[in-house]
Amino acid sequence: MKFRFIHKFPPANVGDSVRVTLPDVDRGRADPKNILFAVVAIEDEQYYKLGNKYGTLPQLYTRNQFGVCPISLIPLDEVVPIEKSLREIAGLISDGSGGQGYKRCSCKDGTVSEWKRILDVNVIALSVCSREAVRSMNSRNLEDAHIIHLSSNLAHYVPSYGPFHFYSATKHAVRALTEGLRQELRALKSSIKVTCLSPGLVKSSIFKNSLGENFDKHIYEAYPSISPADIASTIEFVLATPPHVQVQDIIIKPIGSEA
């Protein structure tokens, strides 16, 4: 029985990044389903102490209570030793903004924590995933590999609405990172394709979670939108191109869109 458990849940190490699922009873509307932590200590070779930049969980976890990420995403020196419950940490992460940091991302009065959060999601996480994807594709000698960066039409202009300014800056960064990666792969004579997909207004729950139901209702009544299915069909088109064709940049927006 112990062998089967170890086989299914191999031990984690100090410094590993792990994923803890937030129970539905503790999760608010804007809270994430999973939260990333680092293993900061191990007791009796089977009980794990977990923490991140928002705090350290007071209770110990067993190996079957979390999943281990394939790469380290949380440096141990960023872990805050102050104990906080899982619900408290979830609240700090969402902060009523749906994890996207819209509410305080203007240039004149944004907070450092909001700026860091949105950079982590839109720039750092994208860069880490791209790096690991290239390594994986190269290790398997894939000849028809493709990386697609999901950006935004805000990567092509700066909107007049202040809370979107910093978000727009991160999406401009995504375009630059896409072109930078393409150049690096070209220098290596790699066949890996890189595409930046920039959607306009997409019908989703992002505004309801970040800016409230009134804003969500207003924006979708006032402006035309496209659906997630439209984005999926565009990705299918990009992936179906022949090996010698690279679609570098696509803007997809609804008919009648102002920008």
Q: Which H/E pattern describes the elements?
A: HEEEEEHHEHEHHHE
Low-confidence runs:
96-103
Strand percentage lies at 15-25%
Q: Total number of β-strand segments?
A: 8
> Major sheet, described briefly?
5 strands, antiparallel
Integer-rounded radius of gyration: 21 Å
Number of helices: 7
Q: Compute the average pLDDT.
A: 86
Shape: globular
For the biggest β-sheet, the strand order reads 4-3-2-1-5
Portion of residues in helices? 25-40%
Class per helix and strand makeup: alpha/beta
Distance between the termini: 60 Å
Structure overview:
With 259 residues, the chain is of the alpha/beta class. The chain is 37% helix and 16% strand. Strand 2 and strand 3 (47-52) form a beta hairpin. It is globular.
Question: Quick recap of the structure?
Answer:
This protein is an alpha/beta fold.
Which properties best describe this structure?
single chain, 259 residues, five-stranded antiparallel sheet, three-stranded parallel sheet
Architecture blueprint of SSEs:
Blueprint: H1 2-8, E1 17-21, E2 34-43, E3 47-52, E4 55-56, E5 67-68, H2 86-94, H3 112-139, E6 146-150, H4 165-187, E7 193-199, H5 206-211, H6 213-222, H7 228-239, E8 249-252
Helix pairs in contact: 3-4
